[in-house]
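Lab notebook, design round three. We kept the backbone fixed and only want residue identities now. Task for the bench partner: fill in a sequence for the structure below.
Input structure tokens:
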């Protein structure tokens, strides 16, 4: 049973004529009549008797209109509830973000919790800096130079990467290098390093930014890290090399429909404002202080296993 056909019958009964029913529904009279005829054909039952005075509902037609009227009222109530729910600054908002950003983002979330006490932010930590945005997650922080074009959002600012080593590693004649696996491969700096490090100089390979930080802190060698992760660690030194300009950016992204909900819009706008204030952290505050030279590599070597 087609609801549009039932609506035409209901509008006819509520407004008394096909002319007025068509005007309310935004269609023409012929469409209203055709809908009712098709509805009768699908049910294989007459819904209207034509009389000298016009028309009247059959017994079954009256029963159908009664059910349809109650159903339409229930729909109106649901629409009103949905509209009210969208405007409430209350409820849950799920936020996906890279796990290494938690120390930076958590103070901002505290401010938002004080500003919107009835909104509960539900965090989903991801190991990858690039991250993803699931259909049931309205907001995500993602580091990327090419975010998903099906999403909408704002660029917070560039995410600067650098080469870091523990001071003990730099005291060795050959500090060695920490190699990279899948997750960090997309960073511009790592693609640049791929062509400049010989495999025999790599002491260990890691597959996440968190593992890279741990390896560098343990003195296993020089590693490429986002500055916001490495700069706060006092024992690490940023190695000076003429590096490529950063291409990756931090994005706050969402699904196109999600911002219709007031609670999502409130967290989105508030978090964006607070993150923009933190741009210097993502850009990297520490200047490279330790000079270092790469040994020449005569052939193109593959950094990844």
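Proposed sequence:
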């Amino acid at each position: 049973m087609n609801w549009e056909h039932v609506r035409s019958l209901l509008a006819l009964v509520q407004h008394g004529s096909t002319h007025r029913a068509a005007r309310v529904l935004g269609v023409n009279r012929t469409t209203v009549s055709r809908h009712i005829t098709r509805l009768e054909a699908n049910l294989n039952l007459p819904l209207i008797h034509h009389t000298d005075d016009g028309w009247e509902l059959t017994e079954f037609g009256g029963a159908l209109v009664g059910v349809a009227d109650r159903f339409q009222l229930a729909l109106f109530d649901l629409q009103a509830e949905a509209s009210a729910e969208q405007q409430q600054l209350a409820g849950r908002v799920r936020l996906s973000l890279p796990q290494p950003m938690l120390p930076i983002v958590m103070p901002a979330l505290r401010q938002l919790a004080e500003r919107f006490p009835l909104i509960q932010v539900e965090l989903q930590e991801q190991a990858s800096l690039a991250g993803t945005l699931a259909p049931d997650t309205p907001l995500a922080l993602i580091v990327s130079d090419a975010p998903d074009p099906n999403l909408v959002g704002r660029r917070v600012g560039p995410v600067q990467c650098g080469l870091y080593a523990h001071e003990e590693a730099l005291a060795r004649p050959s500090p060695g290098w920490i190699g990279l696996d899948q997750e960090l491969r997309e960073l511009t700096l790592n693609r640049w390093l791929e062509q400049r490090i010989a495999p025999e100089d790599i002491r260990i390979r890691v597959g996440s930014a968190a593992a890279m930080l741990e390896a560098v802190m343990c003195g296993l060698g020089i590693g490429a890290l986002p500055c916001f992760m490495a700069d706060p660690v006092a024992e690490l030194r940023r190695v000076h090399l003429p590096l490529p300009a950063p291409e990756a950016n931090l994005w706050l992204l969402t699904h196109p429909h999600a911002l219709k909900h007031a609670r999502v819009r409130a967290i989105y706008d508030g978090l964006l404002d607070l993150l923009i204030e933190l741009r210097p952290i993502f850009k990297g505050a520490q200047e490279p202080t330790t000079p270092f030279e790469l040994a020449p590599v005569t052939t193109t070597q593959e950094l990844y296993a």
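Keep this in mind before ordering anything: DSSP finds eleven helices and 13 strands in the chain.
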